[in-house]
Amino acid sequence: MAIVGNDIDHAVSLLCANKLVGIPTETVYGLAGNAYSQDAVLDIFKVKRRPSFDPLIVHAASLERVADFVLEIPPEAENLANQLWPGPLTILLKKKDIISDLVTSGLDTVAVRVPRHPLTLSLLKVLDFPLAAPSANPFGYISPTTPAHVNEQLGNEINYILDGGPCSVGVESTIVSFEKKIPTILRLGGQPIERIMDILGEVEVNEHSSSQPDAPGMLKSHYAPSKPLILGGLQEVPNDIDKTEIGALVFGEMYTDLPEENQISLSDSDNIEQAAKNLFGAMRELDQKTDIRVIIAQLVPDHGLGRAINDRLKRAATR
Ligand code: AMP
Ligand code: MG
Q1: What is the pTM of this model?
Q2: Which of 228, 239, 247, 110 is nearest to 179 (CA)?
């Protein structure tokens, strides 16, 4: 198991030696390594069993520091970053050569974010390199939102996890590209697009994956538990499954005909932010309960963080 603690100096010494560290962010926990180090980056792909075609997000302390490794920051992107960083927003920018093709899977853009977690911001400030950090989970599985989640799956492969408590947002960042005339949302996430549209005006939302996704976070099946997740209510569950074998992610009323211990309420007050924060932990918990065979979940209201929640539920339901 990895040691869980809040010793930034220790994290710094590991990262400077090109070792990986679990780091907290407001979205999900990251598996971080020196973005300028081939060894560290290769190790991230290996530990996550992530296919090399799925590029990494690079985390920096500030917009000023981002200029170290990108060629240009278009005015629209700069405006968005100025208003929403630090925060759950990732922007694609043309990379400098200092960012290797490994990080970007051969693309000429790098995905960049300034995260809004005090511990990780302090860490980034003292490092003289940015951190490549995808979510700290095996590829395709549910993202971790606590140090314990990271330890459950990657604890044997890394030495240290910085403990920043449970993630405050709970779903991955919103990804925005400025490659086309109209800004494109490549992944719905922790930054509600309503706010992005307030700043940019019209945007295009590219939420449906194709066979050649621009962002593998757009892969249809992703963020998934190992048990089947069924979108909808009890009527959607196959007949051969007993009521005691159904787990439910609930937003709103609990099911009267299912055992209470197999149901997790995402929010006790119909609060969409709270539901996002609880989503992945709840999915994990139901996935781990041995008596449960299938998980049911209904879509939530499709606005604000509800759009990101629905996106993750749909992907989790796709096999
Ligand atoms: P994760 O860090 O695990 O949340 O995944 C990061 C997501 O960002 C992946 O799904 C990538 O596809 C996406 N991404 C990273 N870099 C790029 C890029 N240059 N172009 C498009 N998508 C990217
Ligand atoms: Mg991920």
Answers
A1: 0.95
A2: 110
